[in-house]
Fold this sequence. Notes:
Layout: H1 33-55, E1 60-61, E2 66-67, H2 104-112, H3 115-124, H4 155-175, E3 186-187, H5 188-205, H6 208-215, H7 225-238, H8 241-263, E4 271-273
Amino acid sequence: xxxxxxxxxxxxxxxxxxxxxxPRTRRTDRWWLGPLVTVVGLGLFLIYGLxxxxxxxxYWVPEYHYLAPxxxxxxxxxxxxxxxxWGQWLPAMGPFLPPPVIVLPFVFGFRLTCYYYRKAxxxxxxxxxxxxxxxEPHRGYTGETRFxxxxxxxxxxxxxxxxxxxxxxxxxxxxxxxxxxxxxxxxIGSLLMVVNVVLLWMYTASCHSCRHLIGGRINHFxxxxxxxxxxxxxxxxxxxxxxxxxASLLSVALVDLYVLLIAAGAFPDPRLxx
Length: 274
């Protein structure tokens, strides 16, 4: 067999034995940068979330009705006065079980089982695989058929809880337009909460489970024009699911940090008008 034009057969790399993959990668770009950024981003959010949860303070600004997202809804008797908009259903459970542990497991469950986040932390934390055309260190593959990954199938149920949480945060945002004199007011904090809740709704609506809920099990879109219209809008959001996942994650952390600083008296909330 003649050699291909422009290729010297003597310099060609030897072929690998059948059934054995090349453990090396031929990629020359910085393929490791994406997984590294994901590890740092998600790692910082997890560290902040743990510290914030067990700090269990500086989450309510009574003057402007600012409630930190990590503590909403605050359903424990341990919640500070005014922060329990939906009542205190549960007793105080001590310093090792602060109020956020009631709701945060469901919120994190929605994020952890999200189709995008699965890809993100599978590649970054587990290197399965870290990037396209890069060998992974694992010898076997069982998919999502064993514990704990079989729990990924609960994503659709976490989605329903995420809808409730988004609705609660929307209510928190509405009452955050509270002036110092008790009337209507607008501050930087209330505007940040609006941005946060919009991003959360967009991320939740762009979820694959939401897209299936709207347009799934329909054989003829022409017979369901309203659902078809909604499905096209959800599909457009779904194409930006990754960007919305990161934007909403960042906005939650920033708003929570902002409320913390205001409640701690680090600086006053700049008011546009009271």
